[in-house]
Amino acid sequence: MTQQIYQQEDLPWKDLQHIGLFKNRSLNLDEDDLKAMLSGRRTEMLRLENLNTEGLHIPSLDAKLSVRPNDKGVLELLVHPIYREAEVPQYLTDDEANTLERGEAVNVQKFVFDDEGNPKEILVEFDKDTNEFIITDTEKIIAPEKVNNEPLSAEQKERYRKGKRVELPDGTAIQYSGTNSKGIDANKLALVASVLIDGGISYILYKGLHALFGEKHNEKSKEYSKGYYDALAGLEAEEQATSISR
């Protein structure tokens, strides 16, 4: 999971209008995809229709969307279609790239240098939907304080930030993911995470989660612990208090 870093009012509305997602002052984007964009992640795969760009008319296009600031700090829209060939980052070995493309590993951890020559740790994943390598700065990954009211230890938080699987006492297993809109995979279809944001704890409900790497959801994926329902009650109380304060 990653923290929201952009504000909705700063989205590139004209670009969204050009691709048919903003009409009559209404954004045709579901909540999960909107949260993903505002957190610097990608949406799920969307069907875009009747596109007109650079004098070309495209009847339909399947793509994921994201935003990023340009040189002037203004958010611009990025469209991630299905690429014919994947462009391999230069810091991946052939074996690492092949392992990711074949789905034999969920991610590869690498140390690289930024534009100013400073070392940083990144996770490289492969998005099979778009046939594209995804890179995430691990410093931008926020590990939850709790999941279903189960606190994560310092070691578990570090494992999560490094893209490794984390097992919790209530039977829930989680793992960071940069390839889907929610930013987290789990062996459960839903969970409640407690996240430290701006010095305070906030509850976040995740529903319709992707299964963990190499696994599929089953009937046990719908079985939730007491901690899940307690955390869900906490979320509802938080939302009620916010509503009253308004």
Q: Could you explain the architecture of this structure?
A:
There is one protein chain. The chain is α+β, with helices and mostly antiparallel strands and 246 residues long. The chain has 3 domains: 8-81, no CATH class; 94-140, no CATH class; 146-241, no CATH class. It is built from 5 helices and 15 strands. The chain has helices at residues 13-18, 31-38, 94-101, 154-161, 226-245; strands at residues 22-23, 26-27, 46-53, 56-69, 75-81, 108-113, 119-127, 132-137, 146-147, 150-151, 166-167, 173-176, 184-186, 190-197, 200-207. The strands form 5 sheets. It has a 4-stranded antiparallel beta sheet with strand order 10-9-14-15, with helices on one face. A 3-stranded antiparallel beta sheet has the order 3-4-5. It starts with 12 loop residues before the first helix and ends with a helix. The mean pLDDT is 91.
Indicate how many domains the architecture comprises.
3
H/E topology pattern:
HEEHEEEHEEEEEHEEEEEH
Main beta-sheet strand count, sense and barrel state: 4 strands, antiparallel
Beta-strand share of residues: 25-35%
Quick recap:
This protein is 20% helix and 34% strand. By secondary structure, the chain is an alpha+beta fold. The longest helix has 20 residues, at 226-245.
